[in-house]
Design brief:
About 55% of the residues lie in helices and about 5% in strands. With about 325 residues, the chain is mainly α. Bound molecules: tryptophanyl-5'AMP. Tryptophanyl-5'AMP binds next to strand 1, helix 1 and helix 7.
Length: about 325
């Protein structure tokens, strides 16, 4: 049976957090047997905001080690670094020529990030979604598991696939986003109105490498809602609903069961349980990240193999794309 192609990626900027794990990585692991999976460390995306070159190189390895530590199996999927397959950038350029200014201006991530950077906004940050579309379309991807914040980018990838196909003839598969029913948007612990993000203060997120005492402190100090009931109601109780979502993913208990288990108990008891569950979820991941980083030779081998597999597919696709567009010589 031919398995459908699945593609996703994470930027190697800094440390990954439980939002990345619950929104993206956890579902990747669940899908690796069902789909033909490509998991990319998207370093070309990372440089759309300034990076320290030394730190970036280390973060690329950290991110790859995290992919393995959460349970991605290099025998089942290709794990590789985006910049090592230059066809991503080439297709990104070609897609930028059929992308309209207004389509990029509408992107909320661009609006948010450019506000933070003021005058220093680079063109790369603006055209970021065309590169992301290239990542996806290059591999005939059907399914893209991501958190909710990426929906708009994937919508653009769909538009560009259709536009290219109608302009140059059938070339690209039109991809589909796949998001968690609960957990597609994990919110900040210090402010449940903003999403959990590595660019926020440490009190906002739990890093996958946080030690148990840090996890406990961050959860115990997290913002709560008024009232005292443990009830899932993101509109009225955004902070507790966020903790319930995290607990649901850490324990696999249903939301209903969680509400029942904590009936009559207070926020303090619930937070303690969340801290225990998150610690238990992250203990083996933290340990495995360290182990993979201690064995760089093995990590390099996995990334070499992933790069070769990705490059084979990307080369074939780009031959077709160049021909369709009329680039180069016959
Ligand atoms: P990035 O690196 O910001 O985040 C990686 C993944 O984690 C998800 N995520 C979250 N999910 C739930 N709650 C949160 N608070 C949260 N924060 C992050 C993101 O939705 C994402 O799935 N542009 C992408 C990377 C990318 C990509 C691609 C993804 C580049 N090319 C092609 C899919 C396909 C990004 O910046 O993700």
């Amino acid at each position: 049976m031919i398995r459908q192609r699945l593609f996703s990626g994470i930027q190697p900027t800094n440390i990954l957090h439980i939002g990345n794990y619950i929104g993206a990585l956890k579902q990747w692991v669940d899908m690796q047997e069902k789909y033909d999976c490509m998991f990319c460390v998207v370093d070309l995306h990372a440089i759309t905001v300034p990076q320290d070159p030394k730190e970036l190189r280390q973060n690329i390895l950290n991110t790859a080690a995290t992919y393995l530590a959460v349970g991605l199996d290099p025998k089942l999927c290709s794990i590789y670094v985006q910049s090592e397959v230059p066809e991503h950038a080439e297709l990104g350029w070609i897609l930028s020529t059929i992308t309209r200014l207004g389509e990029l201006e509408r992107m909320t991530q661009f609006k948010d990030k450019s506000k933070k950077r003021g005058e220093k906004v680079g063109v790369g940050l603006y055209s970021y979604p065309t590169l992301m579309a290239a990542d996806i379309l290059l591999y005939d991807t059907k399914t893209v598991p991501v958190g909710e914040d990426q929906m708009q980018h994937i919508e653009l990838a769909r538009t560009l696939a259709r536009r290219f196909n109608s302009q140059f003839g059938e070339t690209f598969v039109v991809p589909q986003a796949l998001i968690q029913k609960v957990g597609a948007r994990i919110m900040g612990l210090n402010d449940p109105k903003v999403k959990m993000s590595k660019s926020e203060a440490p009190a906002n997120y739990i890093a996958l490498t946080d030690e148990p005492d840090v996890i406990r402190k961050k959860i115990m100090r997290s913002v709560t809602d008024s009232g005292q009931e443990i009830k899932f109601d993101p509109g009225k109780k955004p902070a507790i609903s966020n903790l319930i979502t995290i607990y649901h993913h850490a324990t696999e208990k249903s939301i209903k069961q969680i509400e029942n288990d904590f009936q009559g108990k207070g926020y303090g008891d619930f937070k303690k349980a969340v801290a225990d569950a998150v610690t238990e979820m992250l203990d083996p991941i933290r340990q495995d990240i360290q182990d993979y980083l201690k064995d760089p030779a093995e990590l390099q081998k996995i990334l070499d193999k992933g790069r070769d597999a990705a490059h084979d597919l990307a080369c074939k696709k780009m031959c077709l794309v160049r021909k369709k567009v009329g680039l180069g010589r016959a």
